[in-house]
Specification:
The complex is a heterodimer of chains A (226) and B (223). Chain A has helices at 6-28, 42-69, 72-104, 112-132, 137-152, 154-164, 180-215. With 226 residues, chain A is mainly α. In chain A, helix 2 runs parallel beside helix 7 (180-215). Chain B has one domain. Helix content of chain B is 84%, strand content 0%. Chain B contains nine helices and no strands. Classes of the chains: A mainly alpha (226), B mainly alpha (223). Chain A binds chain B through residues 67, 115-116, 119, 122-123, 125-126, 129-130, 133-135, 138-139, 142-143, 146-147, 149-151, 153-154, 157, and chain B through 145, 148-149, 152-153, 155-158, 162, 165-166, 168-170, 172-173, 176, 207-208, 211-212, 215, 218-219, 222-223.
């Protein structure tokens, strides 16, 4: 019987934490003063937003690590974090639309934050497509690392967009502006999501490694001495 | 390195000059887009207001045809390896090629703008040097990342599909700034917005010309 890997333990803890966090967000935390119950999406939307940018930043660091060291472990990390980041970014846009409909009256508007977040998602989808179009592992690693670092330039632009171009999307809420019971639920959800994402990335990293091992050419047979 | 860059630029422009079909093809491609876009417009008055945006959509689409071909000469007979074997800094190769691609795109832009005046009824109410500034920095903003990705996709499978997928999302901020800036120069700029769009375009260029130059060596050496 195979041993239970550490990431599965982390992931199960994270999933349990998310169930508790979602329950607390929906039924325990007080309703938001202006938006009422609609504001409860905050407990999912904001952690997903922060963690998607964080995930792409880990991709950027891993890409830098690969270009500096040439170690394939970094490339597998690029592969796993870019995929998880794209998933988070897509979820972010869906959640944002769901929140925008009752509060702004539209599913989508040409707001700088929405545009920069979509551009960020598309640039990293480009990285995934580039990886898919390259068969040589070394070339794939180098090219996708370069494309990842260039795509990462959009992360700080997306983060700062609400401050640079004041528009419909609110600016970042300072932590002390959130009431204590709401803050606890927010942190709970954030920590639970981090655990689930560590699980996803670690699992995906192992898949990337296993794929690379399977693709590697068979070692030449050892020379037989006469 | 400047001398090396200029040598590569000279070589690129010479190749362009000897095979002029590429640049004329680009011009007619961009012109076709300008004409086709007119059918999507509800009225001639709106067309005039959209001229700046349509110019940049046309240039962006035309750029993919140009950038796609930028490394075609090198890919034939393994000439890219020969180029990299030159005792030349890879950054000089990049900057030479990127400058050549920018110049080609700029020539197409300069040829398309009079069409907008003639066919769309567009006019320049702002200053012409500022309009030229938007054209130069806008073309440069497509040229630098376009050359880097052109270098990558020339060596990958399905390059003609892959280049727009990589390039378009990346240059959205630059195309947005160039289109908005060109529009305010054409329509008049009472709020003084042109300066901030130009600032965004210059910042985009500063980031991407330095980053792409830095990475180009890795892209072709490992290729």
């Amino acid at each position: 019987m195979s041993r239970l890997k550490w990431e599965h333990v982390v992931g199960i803890l994270g999933l349990l934490g998310m169930i508790g966090g979602h329950y607390a967000g929906l039924f325990v935390a007080p309703p938001e003063r202006m938006m009422g119950d609609v504001g409860r999406i905050f407990y999912v939307h904001v952690p997903v937003a922060i963690l998607s940018m964080l995930m792409f930043s880990v991709s950027g660091l891993a890409a830098f690590g690969y270009l500096m060291s040439g170690r394939m472990g970094f490339d597998w990390l690029v592969e796993s974090t870019v995929e998880v980041g794209v998933m988070l970014s897509t979820l972010l846009l869906i959640l944002g639309s769901v929140w925008a409909r009752p509060t702004w009256g539209v599913w989508w508007t040409w707001d700088p934050r929405l545009i920069t977040a979509t551009v960020l998602l598309l640039t990293f989808v480009g990285v995934m497509l580039l990886r898919g179009a390259t068969t040589n592992p070394e070339k794939r690693a180098t090219w996708s690392s370069v494309a990842t670092l260039i795509a990462w330039v959009n992360v700080p632009i997306t983060y700062k967009s609400v401050q640079w171009w004041r528009s419909l999307h609110q600016i970042q809420t300072p932590q002390d502006a959130i009431s204590e019971p709401m803050r606890i639920v927010y942190y709970e959800n954030m920590i639970a999501m981090i655990l689930v994402l560590v699980w996803f990335v670690a699992w995906r990293w192992r898949i990337a490694k296993a794929t690379a091992m399977a693709e590697a050419p068979e070692p030449l047979p050892a020379e037989v001495s006469p | 390195m400047i001398r090396q860059t200029l040598s590569v630029l000279r070589k690129e422009l010479l190749v362009e000059w000897r095979d002029r079909s590429r640049i004329s093809g680009l011009f007619f491609f961009a012109m076709a887009i300008v004409i086709l876009m007119a059918f999507a417009s509800p009225s001639e008055g709106v067309l005039k207001q959209q001229a700046g945006g349509i110019l940049w959509i046309g240039l962006l689409l035309a750029s993919t045809r140009s950038l796609d071909q930028s490394f075609a000469t090198e890919m034939e007979h393994g000439a890219l390896e020969g180029l990299m074997l030159w005792p030349v800094d890879p950054r000089a190769v990049f900057y030479g090629k990127a400058l050549a691609n920018t110049l080609v795109l700029l020539m197409v832009a300069l040829a398309i703008v009079p069409l907008l005046f003639g066919m769309y009824g567009a006019e320049v109410r702002g200053s012409i040097p500022v309009l030229l500034g938007f054209l130069v920095f806008g073309c440069a903003a497509i040229g630098a990342p376009g050359t880097l990705f052109g270098g990558i996709v020339a060596q990958a499978r399905g390059s003609s599909v892959l280049l727009p997928l990589l390039l378009f999302p990346l240059v959205i901020p630059a195309v947005l700034a160039a289109a908005k800036g060109t529009t305010v120069v054409m329509e008049g700029d009472p709020m003084g917005q042109g300066r901030s769009w130009l600032g965004l375009l210059v910042a985009f260029n500063a980031v991407h010309w330095s980053l792409s130059g830095l990475f180009f060596g890795r892209v072709v050496e490992d290729g």
